[in-house]
Amino acid sequence: MGLQYLTGRALFALCLVSLVCSDGSHENISFLGEEQHLFTHLMEGYEKSIRPVKKSSDTLGVSFGITLVSIANVDFKTNHFEIVIWLKQMWQDFQLSWTPEDYNGIGNIVIPHDRIWQPDIMLFNAYKLDYMDKAFPAHVLPSGHIIWMPHVRATAICNFDLTHFPYDTQECELKFGSWTYNDNKVNITHFDLPRVDTSSFLSHPEWNITETTAKKNLKKYPCCPELYGDITYTITIKRLTPLYTRAFATPCVLLALLIPLMFLVPVESKQKTNLGIGIFVCLSVLLLMFEMTLPSAFSALPRIAMFYVGAMVLVTVCLIVTTITSSIWYHSPSTPMPDCMKRFFVDCCGRIVCVSSSSHYLMNTAEVSMTHIHDGGSDGDGADKVQMMHMSRGQGVAAEWRALTLVIDRLLFIVFLAISIVLSVAIMG
């Protein structure tokens, strides 16, 4: 009797535990079943290729925005602007609405984006648009509102202005709109503020974002009478210049400041031409590096390229003038200098640049006298005195022409120094 009683109590306890455990499992299974049941209910009879409106005349509103994550590449040779962004899209699909109380309080559900209708918003000026995660799902709320934010790597075609390179600021437009539906079918509006969201932007070593704007546009295309809407985002970026200043601007400015120094090199040293050729070669190497960095064709020629070409023209002019002045210095004409030229260059301009023909005359006279004494000439010989007078007179004419070359060199030094300073300020400014 006692054994039967104990056995009965044990069986009763075992059944009670089994019942409790089975009730808990049933609740979990029931909850999972309700979410699955909700998904099945939403997808039942759903057609993803049809615009989700109750009447064909209704307009479906789509909120659209972009979040800029990073700048991947700015390619001036191909005019490509490559960025990584999040495409924020929200619209309402009446077929995907439910009452949370009917499904144990389920407040949202995640559905693969390829199972539902989605707006065909595209980047119109895109060279390439890659979805980095094609399986990115959509979040659906009980009201039927759908939020879809795919991760995209977009390459846009932009027109860059390199006039002020390397101190340039570039603007690139991103034009998003529906490829199929006009504005009466799908009305695209701003997701939040009319600008690009840069709160998640990762800094770039070469470019800094200075401003972003967004504008809704309506445009009529030749194919269709309806208006098509788009949102055009404008991203303004400014180049961080330290690297390019050291690589391009600073060497060019220093070489430009060396150009006027060619006129201060004494003609006797015969190094004027070597200095000019050395500067010309350095400018040619810098121009070649510049061409390798930027495209060979420009809508507007960069100022720094004009600076290179201008500096090379200055060097060429310097070499031409140096050749002429050296010829006059070593092969002075035997004819006297015209009085008007002498008064203007030697007398007037010579005083301004501190050049005196008399000092050269005395130097040449002393050189002739020393040469005559070294050759054993006699002061009492009348023929020698006459020859000495003719040589002295010839040296005086030569001294005037040599003074002219020095005056020209120093005047051109002042002129070319001013030109080099103006060009340097223009390129660095």
What integer value in Å does the Rg equal?
43 Å
Helix-strand makeup class: alpha+beta
| Number of distinct beta strands | 12
Largest sheet: 8 strands, mixed
Taking pLDDT < 50 over at least 5 consecutive residues as the criterion, the unreliable ranges are 1-29, 365-374, 383-391
Description:
- With 429 residues, the protein is α+β, with helices and mostly antiparallel strands.
- Helices cover 44% and strands 23% of the residues.
- The strands form two sheets. Strands 1, 2, 3, 5, 6, 7, 8 and 10 form an eight-stranded mixed beta sheet that branches.
- A hairpin with a 4-residue loop joins β6 and β7.
- The chain is rod-shaped.
- The N terminus is likely disordered.
Q: Can I get a quick summary?
A:
The protein is α+β, with helices and mostly antiparallel strands. Helix content is 44%, strand content 23%. The strands form two sheets. Strands 1, 2, 3, 5, 6, 7, 8 and 10 form an eight-stranded mixed sheet that branches. The chain has a four-stranded antiparallel sheet with strand order 4-9-12-11, with no helix packed on it.
What is the secondary structure topology, with strand pairs?
Elements lengths: L1 H42 L16 E16 L4 E13 L16 E3 L9 E3 L2 E6 L6 E3 L4 E4 L2 E7 L11 E10 L7 E5 L16 E14 L6 E13 L2 H17 L13 H22 L9 H28 L8 H14 L4 H18 L7 H47 L1
Parallel strand pairs: 1-10
Antiparallel strand pairs: 1-2, 2-7, 2-8, 3-6, 4-9, 5-8, 6-7, 9-12, 11-12
Helix pairs in contact: 2-3, 2-4, 2-7, 3-4, 4-7, 5-7, 6-7
